[in-house]
């Protein structure tokens, strides 16, 4: 007999964490129903389709393919049963804005552009990448190899013993096994200090730190442990699932359907009520009954808006005191013709990117010299745009909670497109045939995210591992949480694992 046979579970929200937990719980025999407030499944991994253009609205980097392989293997399947992957080359392109006096690359080297500043392609060829590093700083090629070896060690040990194995209490860390596995991990200090121990050139430091945007942090507030992301980047590679990230959402939904999960869209849950050992979930279309509830809605929203105060684990002061990942200003653009110098993934970084991080975390304001990301999937996938056109989006990380009225969006849109033309040589301004925008207030309204954060709780030292909110509700028996605010944290792979960890808590309590 299956361990959860006869139990009914409602999963609120259909992000990667909710979809993952639904699969594990259904596989354990539960009757699982996923209810989603928006018009499509996927949570922040929504898809925007307009006039023949298709955009991934949220995550667009397919990293850590081993996590997806492990997830599908848990159900005797593989990712290729559902979608094909293409290894991107280059992984991504970086445009550094105006070169400073600190830059000393050879003007004849192929990654240098005297017109638009430095341009670097990070490719699957590690030896070529080492040569690029060497051009910036003598000895940096071999240093990169040493850095990546440490990153690989942190990744392998960290994933096995501290990511897939949840440790929600302090006492879970106070044993010899944990101490032995943690030996040598980069646990102390910030990413800024860790990278500075290896590289002097500011451009190289930026290359090694850009992955922090996936964790919602800055070099100064993210623990050095997350140097493991460089193993993800340089060694495991950057991939593209055919059809975009939306096809990965479809794959997990299809898997869930095969396991017996039911899905309902356009039905927001407005209140969670306990009822004689079970739950009654209020919705505009009438109540839903369940024995158990897993909330993939943002943790703060679940606590502050869906639960009565006696059932809340944290008060308003707790949520106000947290450090949140950035929000984002997004432009989804359909343009005539090609996108010139842009790669599938392109980063545009200022000389002083510390100022941009300060304008997110220290002195919140619209960045005056932004660092930003451009995704042009039409460079890889011709199906995402009509013939003769390109699809892309531009993402500028900004502080959550900023005012984003129409006038501000209009003004900043011009700032970004001007900057893109100036520093990459790709001028889109006269070729745009479709334009949609998404910003702070949209994250708040569409995803119920606190202050319009795009990702949730940042990965600061005080918000990592056991310092993130737990999967089990402290105030309500039978209520569980899943997603980026819980362990192991932010990002599609981490949310997939979060679904497994949450399901394991349900099984421990109710199997």
Task: Report on this structure.
This protein is α/β, with parallel strands linked by helices and 511 residues long. The protein folds into three domains: 8-85 and 243-322 and 463-510, FAD/NAD(P)-binding domain; 134-236, no CATH class; 327-447, Guanine Nucleotide Dissociation Inhibitor, domain 2 (2-Layer Sandwich), CATH 3.30.519. The protein is built from 15 helices and 20 strands. The protein has helices spanning 16-27, 65-73, 126-136, 140-163, 176-182, 191-196, 202-209, 228-236, 245-259, 299-306, 316-321, 353-361, 406-424, 440-447, 492-510, and strands at residues 8-12, 31-35, 47-50, 53-56, 85-87, 92-96, 112-113, 117-122, 239-241, 262-264, 271-275, 278-282, 288-290, 292-295, 327-336, 345-349, 372-375, 389-398, 432-438, 479-481. The strands form five sheets. Strands 7-8-6-16-17-18-15-19 form an eight-stranded mixed β-sheet, with helices on both faces. A five-stranded parallel β-sheet has the order 10-2-1-14-20, covered by helices on one side. A hairpin with a 3-residue loop joins β7 and β8. α4 crosses α8. The N and C termini lie close together (11 Å). The relative contact order is 0.19.
């Amino acid at each position: 007999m299956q361990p959860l046979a006869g139990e009914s579970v409602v999963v609120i929200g259909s992000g990667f964490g909710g979809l993952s937990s639904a699969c594990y719980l259904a596989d354990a025999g539960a009757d699982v129903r996923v209810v989603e407030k928006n018009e499509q499944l996927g949570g922040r991994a929504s898809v925007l389709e307009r006039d023949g253009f298709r955009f991934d609205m949220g995550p667009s980097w397919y990293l850590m393919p081993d996590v997806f392989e492990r997830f599908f293997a848990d159900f005797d399947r593989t990712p290729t049963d559902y979608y094909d992957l293409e290894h991107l080359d280059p992984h991504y392109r970086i445009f550094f804005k105006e070169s400073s006096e600190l830059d000393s690359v050879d003007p004849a080297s192929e990654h240098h552009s005297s017109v638009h500043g430095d341009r670097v392609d990070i490719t699957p060829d590690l030896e070529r990448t080492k040569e690029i590093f060497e051009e910036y700083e003598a000895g940096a090629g071999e240093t990169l190899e040493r850095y990546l070896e440490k990153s690989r060690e942190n990744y392998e040990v960290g994933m096995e013993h501290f990511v897939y194995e949840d440790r929600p209490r302090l006492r879970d860390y106070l044993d010899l096994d944990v101490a032995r596995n943690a030996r040598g991990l980069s646990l102390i200090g910030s990413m800024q200090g860790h990278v500075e121990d290896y590289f002097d050139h500011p451009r190289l430091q930026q290359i090694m730190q850009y992955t922090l945007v996936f964790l919602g942090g800055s070099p100064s507030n993210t623990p050095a442990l997350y140097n493991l992301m460089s193993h993800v980047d340089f060694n495991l590679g950057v991939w593209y699932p055919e059809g975009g990230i939306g096809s990965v959402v479809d794959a997990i939904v299809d898997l869930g359907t095969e396991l017996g999960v039911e899905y309902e869209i356009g039905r927001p849950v407005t209140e969670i009520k306990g009822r004689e050992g079970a739950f009654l979930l209020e919705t505009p279309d009438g109540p839903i009954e369940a024995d158990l509830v897993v909330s993939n809605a943002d943790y703060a929203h679940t606590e502050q808006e869906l639960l009565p105060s006696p059932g809340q684990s944290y008060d308003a002061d707790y949520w106000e005191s947290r450090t949140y990942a950035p929000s984002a200003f997004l432009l989804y653009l359909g343009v005539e013709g090609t996108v010139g110098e842009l790669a599938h993934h392109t980063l545009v970084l200022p000389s002083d990117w510390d100022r941009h991080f300060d304008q997110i975390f220290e002195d919140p304001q619209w960045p005056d010299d932004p660092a930003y990301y451009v995704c042009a999937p039409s460079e890889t996938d011709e199906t995402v745009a009509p013939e003769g056109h390109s699809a892309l989006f531009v993402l500028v990380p900004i502080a959550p909670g900023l005012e984003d009225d129409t006038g501000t969006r209009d003004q900043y849109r011009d700032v970004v497109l001007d900057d893109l033309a100036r520093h990459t040589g790709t001028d889109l301004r006269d070729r745009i045939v479709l334009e949609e925008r998404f910003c702070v207030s949209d994250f708040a309204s569409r995803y119920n995210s606190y202050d319009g954060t795009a990702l949730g709780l940042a990965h600061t030292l005080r918000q990592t591992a056991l310092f993130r909110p737990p999967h089990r509700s402290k105030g309500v028996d039978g209520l569980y949480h899943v997603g980026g605010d819980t362990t192991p944290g932010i990002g599609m792979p981490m949310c997939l694992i979060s679904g497994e960890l949450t399901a394991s808590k349900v099984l421990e309590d109710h199997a």
